[in-house]
Design goal:
Blueprint: E1 2-4, H1 22-37, E2 44-48, H2 51-64, E3 69-73, H3 81-89, E4 98-102, H4 106-115, E5 132-136, E6 153-158
Parallel strand pairs: 1-4, 2-3, 2-4
Antiparallel strand pairs: 1-5, 5-6
């Protein structure tokens, strides 16, 4: 699962320290409920160590239940899609469901690369704030090939605006 952080605020602080905005605090639990209601429960979480991603994860986690192992990863902050893919490749082979919480453009570009072009046409998945994509990956995490786009299948995708219970 790939999740872009929820909407952040823009106070006069370093980028890494930006908090969630009111909308982000409202949207993150909506996504957490959607994941739970659809049975998308991570066993492991890799989360950027930026304040807005940590806050997003905390609000999503409250809705999920359970207690997956969580790594707050400095390398995920402002990471390229290739760096994010290498973080995914480091997941333990026994882990069957994982969530990566990060930033654009890395999350969006990784999602587009994993899914490959839709129906053979050129295309790009959009990841507005708090968007989440669920992918099926064949084999072990370590087998994901950075040089082979389309290595995963997009199973599900949503944004807070897509959800009917979102106010």
């Amino acid at each position: 699962m790939l999740l872009r952080h929820a909407k952040s605020d823009w106070p006069d602080v370093p980028d890494r320290d930006r908090p969630l905005a009111k909308r982000g605090k409202r949207d993150a639990p909506v996504i957490g409920r959607w994941l739970r209601d659809h049975g998308y429960l991570p066993e492991a979480v890799v989360c950027s160590d930026a304040r807005r991603t940590r806050q997003t994860w905390k609000l999503v986690a409250r809705e999920l239940g359970g207690s997956p192992s969580v790594t707050f990863e400095p390398r995920a902050y402002a990471a390229s899609p290739l760096t994010l893919l290498y973080l995914v490749r480091e997941l333990p082979a026994g882990c069957r469901a994982a969530l990566l919480v990060g930033h654009n453009p890395g999350i969006e570009d990784l999602a587009s690369s994993l899914a490959g072009p839709p129906d053979g046409a050129a295309g790009h998945l959009r990841f507005p704030t708090a968007a989440v994509g669920v992918f099926e990956v064949p084999g072990d995490w370590a087998d994901l090939d950075p040089s082979a786009p389309g290595h995963a299948r997009l199973l599900d995708y949503t944004t807070p605006a897509d959800l009917s219970d979102h106010v």
